[in-house]
Please model this.
Amino acid sequence: MDAADGDANSNREVIETVTKRIGFGEIVLRPDQGFLLNGKKMKLNGVCEHHDLGALGSAFHKEALRRRFLILKEMGVNAIRTAHNMPAKELMELADEMGMLVVSEAYDMWEDQKRLMITRDFLRIGLLSMFMLFRLSFSF
Model:
């Protein structure tokens, strides 16, 4: 609870501050105009990115990913499809910061083999997890 809302802290000092970048936008798909972002026609120039950073491995490294995003933007890329796994929260934050759109896979077969049938519950849980994690991100 915020100190301004009357928590148990009688000194009214702030105990914790959380800053979160959020984004709002309008996405429209029209047969005659295509993809519109905030009223402007836009072509998605995307690439498929797996979660690893090549020789750096799978551990998330923000500055390495920032460098990769800069190189991709120089190539004209404005959208990234994450492959097979939900992206790291930091990837989404960096995408918001750098103006990259993200097409995120809601789920993969994390626990079950691909030959098993996907159930509605599996889809619901996967989608709910993704929306809860990225609900404030404009890139998503």
User: Anything to note?
Assistant: The mean pLDDT is 78. The chain has one domain: 3-134. The two ends are 28 Å apart (CA to CA). Residues 106 and 128 are 9 Å apart (CA to CA).
